Structures are given as C-alpha cells and as structure tokens.
Amino acid sequence: MDMKDEETSTDGGSTPEPQGDTGHAPVTGTGAKRGFAAMDLKRQREIASKGGRAAHTNGTAHQFTSEEAREAGRRGGRSVSSDRAHMAEIGRAGGKARGRAISVAKPAETSAVSRAATEVDPSKHQ
Questions:
Q1: Per-residue pLDDT in tens (0 to 9) along the chain, 126 residues
Q2: How far lies 69's CA from each of 72, 74, 75, 78, in Å?
Q3: CB–CB of 80/86 below 8 Å?
C-alpha cells in the first residue's frame, strides 16, 4: 500500500491523523492534562509564588536594570512594528476607540457649554 493511500480516506472526506507512535499525546487537544497543567489556577499560583520568593531569597532571581528593561522594550517594539498588518489593525482599533470616546464625551461635555453659548437672553433682543 502506498503512503499516499494511507493519508487519504476512501470516501473523499478529510484526511485522518497520521499513524505512528511518537510517545506524545495527540496535538488535537484531546489529551488529558497532567502535572502542573492539571492543577487548578489557585494552586498553580501558590506554587509559582513560592518559587519566586525562594529565588529572591537565594539571590538567584533576575532583576532588570533600567537599561536592560529599555533595551528589551526596544527589541519588542521593533519586533511588533515590523508586522505592518498588525500595526494597521492596532491603528484601526485605536481610531475607532477614539471616535467612540469623542462621540460619547461630546454631548455631555458640550451640553452645558453650548447651551450657555447659544441661549439667547430675551431681554437683550427686544
């Protein structure tokens, strides 16, 4: 039997999962969680917190200097900004949010001011 025959189904439907023993759970997400991943989030946080405290106590925890943090921010910014589609999406979302904020703020912001400016004093126009 040819390898191609094993990969395609006879009914013309989708291809089945490749056969073989890799020693790992399937990638489809149906494998049971084990170890740390199987714990509830509260327990995971407790354990992680203990690890962080221990690292600081031992003096092995890394603390960024302001220069290291600045450089890491630069590298991250370069990485993100190189994806033009992503940057366009961010800009579009920001523009929409700004438009919503302005349209919501205008009636409340301008209502008292514009009423005072546009109200006509009847005693002055007689």
A1: 444 444 444 444 444 444 444 444 445 566 788 888 899 999 999 999 999 999 988 888 888 899 999 999 999 998 888 999 999 999 999 999 998 888 877 655 555 555 555 555 556 555
A2: 5, 9, 10, 14
A3: yes
Q: For the CA atoms of 29, 34, 40, 46, what is the dihedral angle to 10 degrees?
A: -130
Sign, Cα dihedral of 57, 59, 61, 64: positive
Please classify residue 41 by burial: count the beta carbons closer than 10 Å to its beta carbon, then call 0-12 exposed, 13-18 middle and 19+ buried. exposed
Predicted structure pTM score: 0.31
Count how many residues are written for the chain: 126
